[in-house]
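Hey, can you fold this one?
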Amino acid sequence: MGIISFVGFTLIVAIIAWWSTRKTDENTSDGYFLGGRSLTGPVIAGSLLLTNLSTEQIVGMNGVSFRDGLPIMAYEVVAAIAMVFTAFVLLPKYLKVGIATIPQFLEKRYGKTTKTIVSLLFLLGYAISMLPTVLYSGALAINSMFDVPEMLGMEPIPALWVTVWAIGIIGAIYAIFGGLKAVAVSDSINAIGLIIGGSLIPIFGLMYIGDGNVFTGLDTLTTALPEKFDIIGGPDSDVPFWTLFTGMIIVNFYYWGTNQAIIQRALGAKNLKEGQKGLLFAAFIKILGPFIVVLPGIIAFYIFNGDIPNADEAYPMLVKKVLPAAFIGFFAAVLFGAILSSFNSALNSSVTLFGLDFYKEYINKDASERQTVKAGKIFGAVLGIFSMTIAPLLYGVQGGVFTYLQQLNGTHSVPILAIVIVGIFSKRVTGKAANWAIVFSAVTYLITLYVIKPDISFLHLMGILFVLTIALMYIISYFKPRETDFFDEYTKQVDISPWKYLKPVGYTVCALVILLYIYLS
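Sure. Predicted structure:
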């Protein structure tokens, strides 16, 4: 029954995605890479949420909360403030200049060399961290819920290889042959299922603890494990409290404002109003995120007495333990959709970056749009195979897959966010300053984190490096500034009139985040 509901739901999503995109001309750059600039607020919100809320989040964050408790929720709720900032500041700027990729914006602001360096950083980040962690965490969840190793008569690690490649091949077909609109439509459907299915896990978990009563279960949990509900993480926590004002801001502002795989959804908006609606609606949902991606890990700690050697397996083991058999197939299908979403979103963005920023720019400058799209698809297939090869090697990685992902992302998140922010708020900083800042930040971060290994949180390291990177840009530009102020011209590809409810809704989201922290403190 579980297998039937799994296959049935997955096929329904695929058919709806195909039907919705059959009239989109995907032989053009706008059609394939940006869904024809036709995405509406609800579709953008659903796609943003599911691109983010995948198994590396659900499995990885619950793995961290299994060990560390509530402080990890900062990744979810601080995201809401970052999305407000993007809606207010960054998206209007991006849509005004009519870009399809963040590196294109940087080319307009700093020059071709900066664009190339950043595109390369994005592609390396997707290849080494994001794509493999999505595949690994997804395969781990599917294998645990369906007893795949036992079904195949294999040991856990060989079975992991099989599942990783199965997911990767299906995801690559979605991303490479469907384009952004197919990805976004399937995301929106799966987002609804994931929110419903994801909410069932903590509910059934609390009912299991409380003998059928959710509130009794919650009271038992908070009484038995008060240390897990202390949101002010200590110095040994994965997220010490003061990192909220250093690296945590950088992680979220980079992810929601400059990460190509995420912001590409908003860049495909039919106008600024729809893009802002999508971002702010998604921000509201993110505030509720800890219920899905943090609480189950604590529940798993209670139920299994903390006795799970690999914390990344806590969530799938909990699902198998508390979810009624009739729901397993549906939830696995929704989780499978989430895996595909993050994987094919990053892959689609990689195809976009390679096609527009490398192939068209350096390999075949006279390429037609059809040739550019085709070259991007070939690159996407190669990148997909590479990530499928790396993913199983993450099994049992120290600190968990989520922490691994966030640490590695600091290599590119710090310099990219720094040059985007400076590029928007300064008209005199030069391209040479941006290029030196990127190299300085990436090299310094890697050497400090993996060679020197200081006794501070990597999030604090990101905060310190962010300030130093911006300072370096201003120092270099002080001695040799631009000859003229930078001016960005309105391309008029979409209407950039702001949403009339932008300010009240945005301020409300920020207030809710602050109140949530005060309440849980």
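Residues 337 and 510 are 30 Å apart (CA to CA). Let me know if you want another pass with a different chain boundary.
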